[in-house]
Amino acid sequence: MSAPVYLFTGPEAGKRNDAVQAVKDSLKKKYGQIEEYLFYASESAAAEYMAVLQNESLFASASCVVVKNADFIKKKDEIEMITDWISSVKSDSSVLVLVSDEISVDSKIEKAVPSANQKKFWEMFENQKLPWLKNFFSGNGYSIEEDAAALILEMIENNTEALKNECSRFFVCFQKEHRITPDDVESVLAHTREEDAYSLFNAMAAYPEEPRVRLEKSLDILQKIRLSKDNASVGILARLTFCFRNLVLWQKLSAAGTADDFNLKINGFSSLAKKQLYGRAARIWSSGQAVAVLSLIAAADMSIRSGGSLLEDVLLQKLLYEIIMKKGAASASYEISD
């Protein structure tokens, strides 16, 4: 019996989520009712989700534990806990699915997961995105002008999950057979789209805008995120960590002279929008400064986890100040003048 563990990595969230659902569907087909659990490795200790796997379910014949942000699993004891379970598990009624936006996770975990149960999900090539978008609209009874499709692709992160979620808004606003125009895109997406940590990083990296302008815009976006449903500090910090890790990787590829289309794609930089974003970011932060920023984010995460929610917003605002105004240098305090 192959160990009941799966590893799905890469930036293409839509197809990756489909793979996770396929695992759940297969388990349901075999066992009937199952219990489903979702954890984030950036928030939960391995002991929490491994306890679920090691204890039989009281209410269902099987269980599926999905752990996102699996690239955060770094501690030796947590890695050993997972790999020991993989090597010793006797039943396939408890399934572990490890998920990450990154291309890879810790090598010991990768070696423990059967190769047949691992898959990397890459972003679409540039020449695939426009046809995919047109097919998505036509499949739902709509058509779309090419300029409108291009505008959507500029505004939305390059993965099919984000595209599906955002473009589904048009189906609420317009009758079927409507042809989507650039004006429709502006009215539906530009003015109603919720901010997220990805749009926050875009604002932080908006070269050649002045640092103070970028800071003010970033603080405004941060406030909107904190007022939204996806307002958890740890989630914001996890996404910023992902972005600055990507920036360090971009800097390494550029320094080594290997930033060609092939190497950029296999490292998650396939879309034109992402290349432009990290090209701008690289003009603001050097590789060393990006590493320093990662240390600041980790310190902020630790402070928020240990100090509770009282000072969360202050710590997040201070972090943005240190990243944008100080380029990764820590500061005792910050002040924004009028």
TrEMBL record:
Signal peptide: none annotated. Gene3D superfamilies: 1.10.8.60, 1.20.272.10, P-loop containing nucleotide triphosphate hydrolases. GO terms for cellular component: DNA polymerase III complex. The keyword Transferase applies. This is DNA polymerase III, delta subunit. GO terms for biological process: DNA-templated DNA replication. One of its GO terms (molecular function) is DNA binding. InterPro entries: DNA_polIII_delta, P-loop_NTPase. Keywords: DNA replication, DNA-directed DNA polymerase, Nucleotidyltransferase, Transferase.
